Amino acid sequence: SSTNNSSGYVNYLYDLMNYVRVWHQRKPINPATGRKNPTICNMSWGLQGSIALTSIDRVIYQGVTYNKPGGGWTVTDRANFGLVAASGSNMLYMARDASIDADMADAINDGIILVGAAGNFYMYNERFGNANYDNALQYLSGTYQSLFYMRGPSPSAANGVICVSSIDSTVVERKADYSNAGTRTDIFASGSNIMGAYYTGGVADPRNAGFNKGKMSGTSQASPQVTGLIA
Question: What pTM was computed for the model?
Answer without folding.
Answer: 0.91
